[in-house]
Amino acid sequence: MATTRPVPDQNDDKSSQGAASAIRLLNTSTLPMLVQEEIERLIMIGELVPGMRLNETDLAERFGTSRGPVREALRALEEVGLIRNEKNRGGFVREISVEEADEIYELREALEDIIGQRVARRADDALIDRLGSLVDQMAGVASTGQAKEYAALNLQFHALLLDAAASGKLSETYRRLVKELHLFRMRALTDGGGLNVSAPEHRAIVEAIASRDPARAGKALRQHVADSRARMLRAVRADAPS
């Protein structure tokens, strides 16, 4: 008896083609974003330092991609103030002056106060547990002098607070300012002695949030930033020629 082959369903073909198109679209739309996030992370933890030239070919090889997504990522990072482009020279990790950094720290003090108050009103036990766990990890890497690892955890801690504050405008303003401080935050952490005291400061923040007292939480965050600002200025002055 002759076997009958099933007739391909045209609808199945269309579905497969649609799925393939969706996957291609997903890959092309998210890859530059993923590259951008990774370059940003490397800048924020101090692996890519201010003034460093960013070579598209080297970055593409590092991430295992073509130069196109890297070029798009660098363009997006320029828009948020982390990269500056020079004609015929390419992109560089942006540098800011000490005066600019000091102004940003001053603004950040006010924003952190607001964040602390908002989080204290909204915090649940799960959030407090996550914050406490991050502080435990921060204390562990600080004890072994791992500044880059500490910086990455510190970013996670403050990002978690920002998300918990649940304010779109606040998040937008805060993220733009904090990204510009990448160099000076690392200097405050290493040269300014922050690695020795920062984890206890963050633990005090968690305790203030756990108290559900908005004023106390706001004050704890504001004081932490004020102390970081002082450490940054101390580090800069120590490096200044006498």
The overall pLDDT, averaged over residues, is: 85
Helical percentage = over 70%
Under the CATH scheme, the architecture of the largest domain is Up-down Bundle
General form: globular
Order of helices and strands: HEHHEEHHHHHHH
Task: Give the class-level CATH name of the largest domain.
Answer: Mainly Alpha
Strand order of the largest sheet: 1-3-2
Tell me the radius of gyration. 23 Å
Q: What percent of residues are in strands?
A: under 5%
Can you summarize the main beta sheet? Answer: 3 strands, antiparallel
Using the coordinates shown, work out and report the CATH topology of the largest domain: Four Helix Bundle (Hemerythrin (Met), subunit A)
The structure class reads: mainly alpha
The tally of strands reads 3
Number of separate helices:
10
Number of domains: 2
Cα(first) to Cα(last) distance is 99 Å
Spans of at least 5 consecutive residues whose pLDDT stays below 50 are 1-8, 18-26
Find the CATH superfamily of the largest domain: GntR ligand-binding domain-like
Short description:
With 242 residues, this protein is mainly α. Helix content is 76%, strand content 4%.
List the helices and strands and how they pair.
Layout: H1 10-44, E1 53-54, H2 56-63, H3 67-79, E2 83-86, E3 90-93, H4 98-122, H5 125-143, H6 147-165, H7 168-179, H8 182-190, H9 194-210, H10 214-239
Antiparallel strand pairs: 1-3, 2-3
Helix pairs in contact: 1-3, 2-3, 4-6, 4-7, 4-9, 4-10, 5-6, 5-9, 8-10, 9-10
